[in-house]
Amino acid sequence: MVSSHVTNNVFTSSHSFLGVLDEVINKPQKGIPEMFIRSDKEPLIDLSMNDKTNPLPTIPIFDFQTLLCAGDNSTELHKLFSACKDWGFFQVVNHGVSSELLEKLKFEIQNFFKLPIEEKTKYKIKPGDVQGYGTVIRSEGQKLDWGDRFFMVTNPVEMRKPHLFPQLPSSLRDTLETYLSELKKLGMAILGILGKGIKMNMKEMEEIFDEGNQSMRMTYYPPCLQPELVDGINPHSDGSGITILNQINGVGGLEIKKDGVWIPVTFLPDAFVINIGDIMEIISNGVYSSILHRVTVNKEKERVSIGMFFNPKFGAEIGPVKSLITSENPPLFKTLSMEDYYKSFFSRNLDGKTNLERLRVN
Ligand code: OGA
Ligand code: NI
User: Fold this and answer.
1) From CA 138, how far away is CA 156, in angstroms rounded?
2) pLDDT at res. 30
3) 158, 167, 245, 328: most buried, per Cβ within 10 A?
4) Residue 86 gets which letter from DSSP?
5) pLDDT confidence tier of residue 142, bands split at 50, 70 and 90
6) What is the distance of C-alpha 256 from the center of its chain?
C-alpha cells in the first residue's frame, strides 16, 4: 500500500508523545514542564493599538455562493486572488455546510478528546509513522506543543490505516465521513476558483487534485496558566494545497505572521478559514502565499479545531504551472513527484517554512 511505502522509510522516529492533557492537566502542581516552554516565542502585536480609529487588519471574508457565481473578471474574484497573495488566508461564509452537521461534529470531537487515555492510546502514533494520536518525537529535547492532536489520511479511502479511521467510535466516524464529503465539494470548488487566478484552466487544477490525497488534524488545546510560554501549535506553514480550518468550539487563538508581526485571526461564527499551503505556493509560482501561522492557547478556555488538508494525488507532479512560466517569469520552485514531496515534508517537524525553502530553485 502506498501509505506504508511513503511513511515507513522516511524518518527514523522511534517514539511519540501521546498528549499534554493527561500528562499535565491532571498534575497542575507540577507547573509547566520544561519540554513545553518556548523561550524564543515571538510576542503578539500590541493589542492596545487596536482601537476604533486604528483597528487591526482582519482577514478578508467571502460569501461562497457569491464566489461560485462570480464571473472570471469580477471584482469579487480579484479580491479573492489578492487575498491569497497578500494574506494567504481568508474566511468563507455561506459555505453550504449545515449548522446541524457542524454542531454534531463539535459534539463528537469534544467527546472523543474526553475519552479515557487508555481508549486514545489505541490510536497512538506507531514508531516510524506520522499518523495517529499524539506528536512524533524526532530529537532529544524537542519542544512540545500544548495541544493533543490526531492526524490521519482520510482519502483515498484505501489509504486509511486500519487501526485509525475505521476504529473510531462509530458516531464520530459517521459524522466525520459526512463532513469529509461536504468539505471535499467545498475544497474542490475553491481549488477550481483559485486556478482561475493563475491562468490555469480548471482541467489542469482538477487533474492535480481530483481524487487527491486528503488528510485531517483534530486538535484539543487545553487551557494553560501561562499561555505566553507555550505554543498550541508551533509557527509553521501548511504542506497542503489548501487547508480548510474549522474552529469547532468558537474559541480563538489562531495567529498569523503578517508583515513581520503576529496578529490574531478572528473568525465569524460558523465560518471556515481557508489558507494557502506550500503546494499551492509552488503551483502558483509564488503568486499565492503560504503564510506562517501558530496557535496561542487560552488561560481559561479549551480550544478545539479540525483542519482538513487538500493535496494532489499520488502520481501527480507538482511544480509551477506551465502557463505562468515565461523567460521573465522563470520557475521559482523545483518540480517533483508527490511521493518525493511527502518524503521531504514528513521527514521533519512542522517548523517555519523550511520544507518550502528547500524546494526553491537556487
Ligand atoms: C494545523 C493548524 C490551527 C488550529 O493543524 O496545521 O495550523 O487552529 N491548526 O488548530
Ligand atoms: Ni497549520
Assistant:
1) 27
2) 67
3) 245
4) H
5) confident
6) 13
Strand ranges inside the chain, DSSP E: 15-17, 61-63, 89-93, 132-133, 135-137, 148-155, 213-221, 233-236, 242-246, 254-258, 261-264, 272-276, 293-295, 303-311, 317-318, 336-337
Answer for the pair 147, 233: CB distance below 8 angstroms, yes or no.
yes
Q: Is residue 277 within 6 Å of ligand 1 at its C-beta?
A: no
Question: How many percent of the chain have pLDDT more than 90?
Answer: 72
**Does the CB atom of residue 307 touch ligand 1 within 6 A?**
yes
The ligand minimizing its distance to the Cα of 291 is 2
- Ligand nearest the Cα atom of residue 276: 2
Any ligand 1 atom below 6 A from CB of 238: yes
pTM (predicted TM-score): 0.93
Amino acid at 107: F
Return the number of other C-beta atoms located less than 10 Å from residue 215's C-beta.
20
CATH number of 4-43+55-357: 2.60.120.330
Ligand 2 center–CA 16 separation, angstroms: 20
Q: Give 60 Cα–ligand 2 centroid separation in angstroms.
A: 18
The CA–CA distances, whole Å, from 98 to 47, 104, 187, 274, 352 equal 34, 10, 16, 17, 34
Span from the CA of 272 to the centroid of ligand 2 (angstroms): 14
Three-state DSSP at 132 gives strand
User: What tens digit of pLDDT does each residue of 223-234 get?
Assistant: 998 999 999 999
pLDDT greater at residue 48 or residue 248:
248
pLDDT digits (tens, 9 = 90+) for 62-72: 999 999 999 99
Q: Does residue 305's CB lie within 6 angstroms of at least one atom of ligand 1? A: yes
Beta carbons within 8 Å of 261's beta carbon, 6+ residues apart: 45
pLDDT band at 28 (very low <50, low <70, confident <90, very high): low
Give the per-residue pLDDT at 5: 33
DSSP 42: P
User: Alpha-carbon torsion 80, 82, 85, 89, what sign?
Assistant: negative
Of 300 and 3, the one with more pLDDT: 300
